Amino acid sequence: RYDLLLHSDRYREIDRQDDGAFVMRGEQADLLIHFGAPASVSISPPTRERIARYVRFVPDSRLSDAAEAAWLESMESVEDMPPFRIFGAPEAQQRGLFVTLLYPVRHGQEMPSVTSQTTDQAVALTVNGTDTIGFNTGGGRISIAGCQTDAGVLMLRRGAGIDGYLAADCTRLVADGIGFTSAQPVTIVQPVTIVMHGTSGEVHAASDTSVTFAVAGVAGIELDGQVLAPVRSTDASVTVRLPAGRHTIRALPGG
Asked: In sequence order, what DSSP letters do the residues of 183-247 get, joined into one string?
């Protein structure tokens, strides 16, 4: 039960996995907590001194002096530290995107393996070698998990190939021969369903734009149930004009 898992000391046990992860063990479910940050940001385990320094500088802290002292006094050893990390930027004014992955599993099931990839421009976590979620901290073009994109947020699901992707506010995504390019930033959520090599999903464009979809064997694009006239097409891609707004899309297979 997640309420007990997250809020009840009676049933909660916390195991430290490594420098970036904890497992909280509950009555009926366990929760993996994994942290990731840009390469320029240090991630430090909490200590009594670091927590005291952090609390002292938190704006509008709701802890009274007595409550703060009692809380810090309860942390007599490393085992008493709460399951979080202290993130430190090189300069106090620097801002960045950090990733905290919460991955619940049924109690007793094997925990997933999580690997992280961090640069000064990107943070990505991959679960069990298949599902990747990434954040672009710099806004430029990045390469993470074998994908080239300028998306602010990226999700990839891999099976035999790319089984699905989400790309937010971007003009380019290329991974394993699948993806798209756009003249204007778009947001595309594309769970890929293989039906005669077809794909389907959704697109959100802030303005009218041209989008090139890269899908092997694609013959055309269907938008909201209507086939769009292609601007250009090859055996592996098709370019169409997309109107602004939210739409359903489907790649039509050739043959």
From this structure: EEEEEEEEE---BTTBEEEEEEESS-EEEEEE-TTEEEEEETTEEPPPSEE-SSEEEEEE-SEEE
Q: Who's near 179: CB < 8 A, 6+ residues apart?
A: 147, 149, 165, 172, 173, 213, 214
- DSSP code string of 142-165: EEETTEEE--SEEEEEESSSEEEE
| Predicted confidence (pLDDT) per residue in 135-174, tens digit | 887 778 888 888 888 888 888 888 767 778 888 888 888 8
Residues counted in the chain: 255
Whether the Cβ atoms of residue 30 and residue 104 lie closer than 8 Å to each other: yes
Name the β-bridge partners of 101.
Answer: 34
Gap between the Cα atoms of 158 and 164, Å rounded: 7
Q: Cα 108 from chain centroid?
A: 26
Angle at which helices 48-57 and 65-73 pack, to 10 degrees?
Answer: 160
User: Which pair of tokens denotes residue 91?
Assistant: 């300069």
